[in-house]
Design a protein that fits this description.
The complex is a heterodimer of chains A (806) and B (194).
Chain A lengths: L1 H12 L4 H20 L4 H12 L6 H16 L4 H14 L23 H19 L8 H22 L4 H29 L3 H11 L1 H35 L22 H5 L3 H4 L21 H30 L9 H8 L8 H23 L7 H39 L6 H4 L1 H21 L6 H59 L19 H38 L15 E2 L2 H18 L6 H23 E2 L8 H28 L17 H10 L2 H10 L2 H50 L1 H14 L4 H10 L1
Parallel strand pairs in A: 1-2
Chain B lengths: L1 H23 L1 H7 L4 H14 L18 H4 L3 H4 L4 H8 L9 H11 L5 H12 L9 H12 L5 H15 L9 H9 L7
The chains are: A mainly alpha (806), B mainly alpha (194).
Chain lengths: 806, 194
């Protein structure tokens, strides 16, 4: 009987004529009645009816024949378990690649005891497959009705048989597991719903997207992502560094480093001093210098210096992880490199931005698409005459030279200004005007504003394609900011060294002072109690770390102020002027100069990235920086959203955001690396100040780790660690890592080769065909096609092409 | 008393919400689309807004209510899209653009940012295929181009672009783009997902 069943099955699967189906339908109806006797579910009947109504399912005929067979077999009253077995066997035979196959159960009650273990396994497989089908249902290009029906049926099937699968002793455990999985899935679903509801600013960004297209919106999405990162950094520094010291450390005024020196006390509360982050602001948890170097504080025995160090390392590590993870995710989505082979096709099918909902933007988009088509047509029509390539090359070299001069000039300017500010500091800050006091920050911000415009003008010499020109522009601005930042740091290093020189002198002075104090008291009274001096009067050592922290905070504040002021003046004031002066002006302000401004996506993104770089650099020395940045980003979001909607017009050249996404991430990664370098350098090489901070008294800042290992961990741990840090072990380990990286890189390169081959091959096949067809005619073309195809390894396209041909 | 009525009112509202959710069964649609429950409910609100007198609130009897093409293409999200008619047509069962709520949800699910690239490619092909013959022939391309540029290009330019497109993407040499050609070309495009 089984053999007959097989043969019939095969015949049925060859998509026999409709007539056979008709015949099968009638006996099925008879069977249905009989099955009702066998305690069938109503569901199964409903399912069968549904199935018959579904005409789109290719293998519907196969399922029907299977049903028919099965019903016949049950008529002959074979064991119910066997039908189940046949079910699963049949499934295997028909190769469950087509997920459209509906598993038929005929509504049999499955008694778990009657199934052998392997039958159970198969049933389990069937259930798992159904589950996979349910999970993958979203991605199927079926009409909704079909999806819903499939979903209902699969769910019923799974529910029915899942309970039955647990057998004997393991049954309770299995049922429990199933219930927990279901609860877990429900929890995940609710959590997903909750997470989507939690995303901030979603409606704002969607509105901007519909008005301005995806590239402007991508800036705001980037801003929101940065905000998330900074929140986490803020949580770390606030919770693990600032709060413990504030709550459990020694209070203000108890020890010298926590008190404002007597000399500065008079002006410590002045707004000007506070704005400059001196006075009471300097001697607080906001900066490095406040922290005490006591090993464990409070009743919790919180290891403050260790925590400070680890939080510093942790912020960097977390940032690296997040940036690399996002890059990897984006890398999967972008296509394979920059191909020019589908220029027109891509223009036709992918140039429309489906997110646009605003008529004005839509008009702009239409215009830009038309322009881009016209440009492409022109390029195509013009023969490739490189007339005067020498002139172009010369102009480009000249342009690059000018840019280099600009960069060098700006670097020198900053250096000069920083040295000047040092001189001012020595003179005493009160003697100088506000400009002279804030010169460094102002100069840096102004350079950041005007140099890009200069670069823009210079780039007109170069005559590049707009997209290439944009990339050059971004690269140059990047170099500018980087150069400025590093010049700033070098100047800072000079100051640090100065302070360290000062330190030696002051140390000497302090010992002299203490000695004199001791001598004077002893001379007065031989049984004098220990001298109590108010902490404000104790001479203080210089604290270069706090100075560095202060410099960074000042830089960021001035940068923020500059951004906001340019926004208000450059965008808002300009828009107001254009709008209201237009009535009484000689030429049309709105259409001609100056008109409304466009939103400069790349400039803003770069600004954001560099700001973040400065945060990373300074966060170790000023724990308040992440908090400041969170506040700043929050305000920026609202201010810029308002400014964009109110003062900007949609861009004329609407560039898509996609390709640039990974570009910005790459820049962020480079900045992250470059900003952690100076911090790491200072931590490793420069000894901490003797008089301030959590590491005072140590030779190097990272000694705190060593100390912790020695005193807080059991003895064998430090022994193990000392063995592990032996160069004899570390060097081979590094060698191993280098080899692993080398291997993975080679493997990746080799895996790319067949991929390139696969992509190129169909094209090559087509080209060869064209060549052969031009010489040999149609017969030859087919032969040519075949030979090139056999040359290629099997590709999706190839199979389809050969299949199509045949 | 006030508290009691408040609680009562809330429970009534909650019950109505439950009933409502049961009626349009968002959890089922949750599994078939890329939307969360809240989004599906919001979509239903939008659907209802389009024709409040036509769209029922009660879906337990599985009513067969379809909104015509003209109403749907006037939604602000679709209004500016040059392909709006084709989009709605390719998601409708009868091919004329009349969408039931299920198809409405399906359409937005595929157009949303959570749908994978392959799924979007399949539907993009359907959208650009104006004469629904499973091939993008020259007429389809011409229509696409004219819609994109609002007929600003001259006929010669249109001709040139269509020829170049077919030349670039057609692999099996039949002078029209089958789904395989289209997918091959679109999978390399960096700009496709939007």
């Amino acid at each position: 009987k089984k053999k007959r069943g097989n043969g019939r099955r095969k015949g049925a699967s060859k998509e026999a004529g409709e007539g056979e189906e008709e015949m099968q339908v009638r006996p099925e109806k008879r069977e249905r009645g009989k099955r009702r006797r066998a305690k069938n579910d109503q569901e199964a009947k409903g399912r069968e009816r549904d199935e018959e109504e579904q005409t789109k399912i290719k293998s519907a005929k196969t399922t029907k024949t299977r049903k028919k067979e099965k019903s016949r077999k049950t008529e002959e009253e074979e064991g119910e378990g066997e039908s189940e077995e046949r079910n699963t066997k049949r499934k295997k035979k028909h190769g469950s690649a087509k997920k459209e196959e509906k598993e038929e159960d005929g509504g049999k009650q499955v008694r778990p005891e009657s199934l052998s273990p392997e039958e159970l396994e198969k049933l389990k497989e069937a259930v798992d497959e159904r589950k996979k089908l349910i999970q993958g249902l979203r991605g199927k290009p079926w009409p909704m009705k079909k999806k819903l029906v499939t979903l209902r049926e699969s769910q019923e099937f799974v529910e029915k048989y899942e309970g039955a699968l647990g057998k004997g002793k393991g049954r309770k455990l299995y049922a429990y597991k199933v219930m927990m999985t279901k609860k877990w899935m429900k929890f995940q679903r609710d959590f997903e719903n909750f997470k989507t509801a939690c995303i901030p600013w979603e409606m704002k960004i969607k509105e901007i997207e519909s008005h301005f297209g995806s590239s402007v919106a991508s800036y705001f999405i980037f801003l929101r992502w940065m905000y998330g990162i900074n929140m986490i950094l803020f949580g770390l520094t606030f919770g693990l560094v600032m709060v413990p010291e504030a709550l459990m450390g020694r209070p203000y005024g108890s020890i010298p480093r926590k008190t404002v020196p007597r000399a500065e006390e008079a002006s410590a509360m002045d707004f000007a001093v506070l704005w400059d982050w001196g006075g009471y602001a300097q001697y607080s948890v906001l900066f490095y210098g406040y922290y005490n170097s006591q090993r464990a504080i409070g009743w919790l025995k919180f290891r403050m210096p260790l925590s400070y160090f680890l939080v510093g390392v942790g912020t960097v590590a977390y940032s690296y992880m997040v940036v690399i993870r996002t890059m990897a995710r984006n890398a999967n989505e972008s296509g394979v490199g920059d191909d020019n082979s589908f220029n027109f096709s891509w223009k036709m099918f992918t140039s429309w931005d489906y997110l646009i909902g605003n008529p004005e933007t839509a008009d702009n988009k239409f215009a830009s698409i038309t322009t881009s088509f016209k440009e492409a047509i022109l390029e195509e029509q013009e023969s490739r005459k490189d007339d005067n390539i020498h002139l172009t090359r010369f102009l480009r070299v000249l342009a690059n030279f000018l840019v280099l001069c600009c960069l060098a000039g700006s670097g020198y300017l900053i250096y000069f200004v920083v040295r000047r500010s040092q001189k001012f500091a020595l003179d005493g800050l009160e003697n100088h005007t506000w400009w002279e006091r804030n010169e460094v920050n102002m100069v840096m911000s102004l350079l950041g504003m005007f140099c890009p415009m200069l670069f823009d003008v210079i780039s007109t010499l170069e005559n590049y394609h707009p997209r290439v020109a944009l990339q050059w522009q971004l690269g140059r601005i990047f170099a500018l900011f980087l150069g400025n930042l590093y010049t700033f740091i070098i100047a800072l290093m000079d100051e640090i060294n100065l302070k360290r020189e000062e330190e030696k002198i002051i140390k000497f002075n302090i010992t002299m002072w203490e000695a004199s104090l001791y001598n004077s008291t002893v001379s007065e009274n031989s049984t004098a109690p220990p001298v109590t001096i108010h902490p404000a009067d104790v001479p203080r050592g210089p604290c270069w770390e706090t100075m560095v922290g202060q410099e960074f905070v000042r830089l960021i504040i001035s940068d923020t102020m500059t951004t906001y002021i340019t926004l208000l003046i450059g965008d808002f004031l300009r828009a107001v002027l254009v709008r209201f002066l237009n009535y009484c002006w000689c030429w049309d302000l709105e259409a001609g100069f100056p008109s409304y401004s466009e939103f400069d996506v790349s400039g803003n993104v770069l600004g954001l990235i560099f700001n973040q770089g400065m945060i990373w650099m300074g966060a170790f020395y000023a724990p308040c920086l992440p908090a400041l940045n969170v506040l700043r980003l929050h305000v920026s979001m609202y201010l810029q959203c308002w400014a964009v909607m109110c003062c900007n017009v949609p861009q004329e050249r609407v560039f898509k955001a996609s390709g640039s996404n990974n570009f910005y991430m790459a820049m962020l990664l480079v900045i992250l690396f470059l900003s952690t370098l100076p911090a790491i350098y200072t931590i490793v090489t420069i000894p901490p100040s003797f008089d301030c901070g959590p590491f005072s008294g140590k030779k190097r800042m990272f000694d705190v780790i060593h100390e912790t290992l020695e005193s807080d961990f059991p003895a064998w741990f430090s022994k193990v660690f000392s063995y592990a840090s032996n160069p004899g072990l570390v060097l081979p380990f590094i060698l191993l890592m280098v080899l692993a990286i080398y291997y993975f890189t080679l493997a990746w390169i080799h895996s790319q080769k067949p991929l390139c081959f696969l992509f190129v091959c169909p094209k090559r096949g087509k080209q060869e065909e064209e060549q052969t067809s031009s010489t040999e005619g149609t017969n030859g073309s087919r032969g040519g096609q075949k030979s090139s195809l056999t040359g290629c390894r099997a590709t999706k396209q190839q199979c389809f092409i050969t299949g199509g041909r045949e | 008393m006030v508290v009691a009525t408040c609680i009562l009112a809330m429970s009534v509202v909650r019950q109505r919400l439950h009933d409502f959710m049961r009626m349009i069964q968002p959890d089922e649609k949750w599994d078939c689309t890329f939307f969360t429950r809240k989004e599906i409910l919001r979509l239903h609100g939008r659907y209802h807004e389009l024709a409040p007198h036509l769209v029922p609130m009660d879906y337990t009897n599985d009513p067969d209510c379809k909104l015509p093409l003209a109403l749907i293409v006037n939604m602000p999200e679709l209004k500016e899209n040059p392909f709006r008619n084709r989009i709605v047509e390719s998601f409708s069962e009868d091919g004329m653009g009349n969408l039931s709520f299920n198809e409405f949800v399906d359409m937005f699910s595929v157009l949303s940012e959570m749908a994978p690239r392959e799924l979007k490619a399949i539907y993009a092909f359907k959208i650009y295929d104006f004469n629904v013959d499973n091939y993008l022939c020259k007429e389809d391309l011409e229509k696409t181009l004219n819609k994109l540029t609002k007929e600003e290009l001259t006929p010669e330019e249109v001709e040139l672009v269509c020829e170049k497109t077919i030349e670039e993407a057609d692999l099996d040499g039949d002078n029209k783009l089958s789904y395989a050609d289209f997918e091959n070309m679109i999978s390399r495009a960096p700009d496709f997902l939007r």
